Amino acid sequence: MIGYITIGTNNYERAADFYDALLAEFGAKRIKETDRFIVWGTGNKTALSIVKPFNGNPATAGNGVMVAFAADSAEQVNAVYEKALKLGATDEGAPYPRGDTGFYCGYFSDLDGNKLNAFFIG
After folding, report:
1. What is the pLDDT of residues 11-51, one digit of tens each?
2. 3: DSSP letter
3. Looking at CB atoms within 10 Å, which of 20, 39, 84, 117 has the fewest?
């Protein structure tokens, strides 16, 4: 299973504010922080971290890379999606059921162009 996900940023404070507000929708908060990275999580589980790239080069969004946040309900998917857009995220696909498997999700990109989604299967 995945232990943590790291996303690069070129605007550390802006990304920190975005993820503070967005991940609060899941009950996550900062659990570790340095001048180079911030880690958010719930309890002892890490959700996500942002980092200033170690090599000093600009961070870039990976083509084909996406981080998916597991929501507890379709309502939480909607709340996370709406929160992301309020925080300045780019709409990549409004929440609705995809297919006939009970997969409900909404897609958005963060302020650095990293593609994200919130999903619920039920």
Report:
1. 999 999 999 999 999 999 999 899 999 999 997 776 799 99
2. -
3. 20
Instruction: Tell me whether residue 57 is in a domain.
Output: yes
Please tell me the predicted confidence (pLDDT) of residue 64: 80
Distance CA 27, CA 101 (A): 27
Q: Are strands 37-42 and 90-98 parallel, antiparallel or unpaired?
A: unpaired
d(CA 7, CA 50): 5
- Residue 20 within any structural domain of the chain: yes
Q: Which position has the token pair 């080069």?
A: 57
Quick check: is 55 in a domain?
Answer: yes
How far apart CA 14 and CA 114 sit, in angstroms, is 14
For position 63, what pLDDT does the model report?
80
Angle, alpha carbons 44-50-51 (nearest 5°): 120
Provide the CATH number for the domain around residue 21: 3.10.180.10
Beta strands in the chain, from DSSP E residues, in sequence order = 6-8, 29-33, 37-42, 45-51, 66-70, 90-98, 103-109, 115-121
